[in-house]
Write a sequence for this structure.
C-alpha cells in the first residue's frame, strides 16, 4: 500500500472494445443486463419526482449518509458501497428516504441513475488506487457526473491525500466553484475517516464544484 503522502495518479486505462469502463465491479454496463433490471428500476423509482437527491459513493460505515437522511427528510439519499458487509450493517438503519446498495458508483452512474436526477454527489476519502482501473476520480467519472447531475448540481470531494486533491482539481477544472452554503446543510455526523483525520490532526482538502449548465 502506497503511503498517502507519496501517492501519484496512475496511468488510466481507456475504454474496452465494447465501450465499457475498465475496472468497474461487474462492468460499467451491469444494469443494462436483464437480470439486474430490477435494481435499475428500483433506483429510477427512488429518484423519480422533484425532491432533491444526493448520491454518496463509497459510504463506508454509513455514519454520514444515515445522519443526513434523518436530518434532511425532504431529500432522497442514495448510497453506493462495494463491500457487502458494510451495506448489510448500515441498510437496516436507513429511513425511507435512504437507499443503500452494494454497487460500484460508476456502474450506477453509467446505467441506473437517470440523467439530470442528482443535486449532489459526495465522494469522501476515495481510495488512492495504484491501478488506474480502480481509481474512482477520473475524466470518465466527470463525464458520468455531468450527465447525472442537474445543471448547478454539486460534487463534493474530500481527501487527506495531497496528490488526490490536486488530481481532483485537475479533473474538475472546467466546473465552476460552488458558492454559498452546502446544499446538504451543516452539522452532519462525521464519516469514519473524517473522525480519524480530526483525531490525529491530519490535514484534509475539500473540493466543491457545480455541474456546468
Amino acid at each position: 500500500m502506497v503511503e498517502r503522502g507519496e501517492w501519484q495518479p496512475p496511468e488510466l486505462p481507456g475504454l474496452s472494445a465494447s465501450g465499457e469502463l475498465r475496472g468497474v465491479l461487474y462492468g460499467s454496463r451491469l444494469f443494462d443486463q436483464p437480470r439486474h433490471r430490477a435494481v435499475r428500476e428500483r433506483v429510477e423509482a427512488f429518484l423519480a419526482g422533484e425532491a432533491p437527491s444526493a448520491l454518496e459513493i463509497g459510504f463506508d460505515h454509513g455514519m454520514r449518509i444515515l445522519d443526513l437522511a434523518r436530518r434532511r427528510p425532504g431529500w432522497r439519499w442514495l448510497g453506493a458501497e462495494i463491500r457487502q458487509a458494510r451495506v448489510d450493517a448500515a441498510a437496516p438503519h436507513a429511513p425511507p428516504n435512504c437507499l443503500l446498495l452494494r454497487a460500484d458508483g460508476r456502474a450506477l452512474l453509467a446505467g441506473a441513475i437517470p440523467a439530470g436526477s442528482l443535486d449532489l454527489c459526495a465522494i469522501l476519502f476515495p481510495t488512492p488506487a495504484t491501478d488506474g482501473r480502480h481509481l474512482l476520480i477520473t475524466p470518465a467519472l466527470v463525464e458520468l457526473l455531468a450527465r447525472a447531475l442537474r445543471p448547478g448540481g454539486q460534487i463534493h470531494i474530500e481527501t487527506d491525500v495531497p496528490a488526490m486533491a490536486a488530481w481532483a482539481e485537475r479533473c474538475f477544472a472546467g466546473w465552476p466553484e460552488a458558492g454559498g452554503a452546502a446544499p446538504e446543510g451543516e452539522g452532519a455526523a462525521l464519516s469514519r475517516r473524517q473522525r480519524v483525520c480530526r483525531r490525529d490532526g491530519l490535514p484534509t482538502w475539500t473540493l466543491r464544484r457545480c455541474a456546468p449548465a
About this structure: The radius of gyration is 16 Å. Residues 180 and 208 are 11 Å apart (CA to CA). The first strand starts at residue 53 and ends at 57.
